[in-house]
Amino acid sequence: MRHFLIFCTAGVMLACHPSVLKRDAALHQELLTVTDSISQLMAEYLYNPGELDETAYLSLDKKIQRLAKKAKSREEFIQVFNHLWSDGPFSHVRLAETQRPAEEMADFIDSMRVGEHSVSLKWEGTTAILTVNSMTGVDTKEGVFEAYREIYKNKADALIIDLRNNTGGTFAGIPLMTHLMTEPVDAGMFVSRKWWVSNSNPPGIEDVRALASWQGWSIKSFWRDVQEQALTRVMFQPTEPHFDGLVYVLTSKKTASAAEFTVDAMAHLDKVTLIGERTAGEMLSQKMFDLPHAFQLSLPIAEYYSTRIGRIEGQGVEPDIAMDPRFAMDLAMALIQGQELNEAVDALQSKLDKLGEEPLGSATVYLLGSMNAWGQDQEGSPRFEYMGEGIYETTASLKKGSYEFKIAPMNWDFDFGAVPKKENLSIGTKATVIKNAGSDNLRIELGEDRDLIFQLDLSEKESPALLILKKGK
Predict the structure, then answer these.
(1) Separation between Cα atoms, residue 226 and residue 208, nearest integer Å
(2) What's the CA gap between 139 and 146, in Å, rounded?
(3) How many domains does the structure of the chain reveal?
(4) d(CA 468, CA 376)
(5) What is the pLDDT at residue 23?
(6) Residue 119 forms beta bridges with which residues?
(7) What pLDDT is attached to residue 133?
């Protein structure tokens, strides 16, 4: 006990050292300057200034001010800030270290390519299954156009569009929708602060009938235009080749932002059936702003109102057929094959009963590490899906080299990491991991490029384990 007391006394003395106190005071002053700048940006650019007078925002703003006075590092401030805003009064608020100036972000987003994971087309007989995991990327847009050309060429009878893991992005939803249409669809409108400064009621279709629809592919142009106008009309125009068969769109609570806007647009069409969960209800348009001390803030500059269901933010898009998203694909295939809805649902319910509750509840975990800048690129971070019986799974394509990683939610409330001194992993060998905020990094070294399957086994609550397999083996 004496040694412990000596250690604690030394720790207190170190914490009270003038140089430490001076460093902490400088950090807190820096963070207070940042929070003041955040408040100013909100007051100047938030889509609806009335939101800033609501109790939920004022309460959160006080928590951020207290955080600025207590955080021990910039990293802690960012992490806790984003955690607080994950349950904030409105979505699309995020703080990060500055990677490039905000003025350059739009050009970067307009030209970025996100990789092959964003779009894939598979076939089950004459049924085309088009999976789109992001709405961002020049290659995503190109991939959707190419998929429809192949669907048309191969004369698909039915189409399943899987958006269960699509958290949004930019404009890839436009071709996803327009190849299904024969007539224009007035889908909705983006609403900026200019509307709310002079109006207390939400807009409707009559308010945009005299406006030309916004056209283009550039987020830079969109951000400029949506801020200059009170309302920005969204009207989709048909694109060739046209797909005229039945369409089933799969959704989940992870389907968010631009993916929700796309789901709602497709729901205007009689031939489209939505299957899955209500979408996230996070349909705002965000823009990046520079802050002092090399911080950068994303905040929403416009919200979206559907001509079909009204405001999507905070509400989401309701499916036509509610179904656990893990079995939405099975239900769509059953309906395409001619099964009656009640019969198909009853058959799937028995499978659902066997799966039981997910060990992580509503938490979503990702593969986060040196392969994806520890989650800074959320859309490019592999997301684990629950496979039943305590198993979560994801896949990743990794280049030759050494990697450090953990498995964690984006807010880092907890993480699965290495048992001390046992962090090195081997393909094909199940390894014990620990669930603990701040655990050691897991490590793996690859002698060649690999497509890998990561299986997190939580079937035994006290002994979580990770198995890494070669994909296709």
Answers:
(1) 13
(2) 10
(3) 3
(4) 23
(5) 73
(6) 132
(7) 92
C-alpha span between 31 and 67 (Å, rounded) = 9
CA distance 34 to 23: 17
Question: Is residue 360 domain-resident?
Answer: no
CA torsion, points 45, 47, 50, 56, in degrees to nearest 10? -90
Confidence (pLDDT) at 449? 85
- Six-digit token pair at 385? 């899906």
Same domain, 40 and 75: yes
3-class DSSP state of 132:
strand
Distances (CA, A) of 1 to 5, 8, 406, 439: 6, 11, 35, 27
Question: So what's the pLDDT on residue 347?
Answer: 87
Residue 170 lies in a domain: yes
Q: Is 316 exposed, middle or buried (0-12, 13-18, 19+ CB in 10 A)?
A: buried
Q: How far apart are the first and last CA of the chain?
A: 55
* CA 45 distance to own-chain centroid: 23
Do 207 and 323 reside in the same domain of the chain?
yes
CB crowding 114-128: b at 16 or more within 10 Å, else e = beebbbebeeeeebb
pLDDT for 473: 45
Q: Are residues 411 and 273 in the same domain?
A: no
CATH number, domain with residue 405: 2.60.40
Q: How far apart are CA 68 and CA 37, in angstroms?
A: 12
| Domain-ending residue, one of 288, 320, 347 | 347
**CB-based contact 260:317 (threshold 8 Å):** yes
Q: Tell me, yes or no, whether 421 lies in a domain.
A: yes
Residue type, 113: R
Judge if 310 and 188 occupy the same domain: yes
| Domain extent at residue 45 | 17-89
For residues 242 and 262, what is the distance between their CA atoms, to the nearest angstrom? 17
CA–CA distance, 111 with 318 (Å, rounded to integer): 33
Give me the CATH number covering residue 215.
Answer: 3.90.226.10
Q: Which residues of the chain have pLDDT under 70?
A: 1-21, 354-356, 377-379, 423, 472-473
Answering whether pTM is above 0.70, one says yes
CA neighbours within 13 Å on the CB side: how many for 457?
A: 12
| C-alpha span between 367 and 464 (Å, rounded) | 15
For helices 18-45 and 74-85, the axis angle rounded to 10 degrees is 40
Pair (26, 148) in one structural domain: no
C-alpha to C-alpha distance for 56 and 85, rounded to whole angstroms: 11
Are 286 and 92 in contact by the 8 Å Cβ rule? The answer is yes
Do 172 and 186 form a contact (C-beta atoms < 8 A)? Answer: no
Residue 166 lies in a domain: yes
190-219 pLDDT, tens digit per residue, is: 999 999 999 999 999 999 999 999 999 999
What was the pLDDT predicted at 158? Answer: 98
Q: Which of 280, 274, 281 is nearest to 312 (CA)?
A: 281
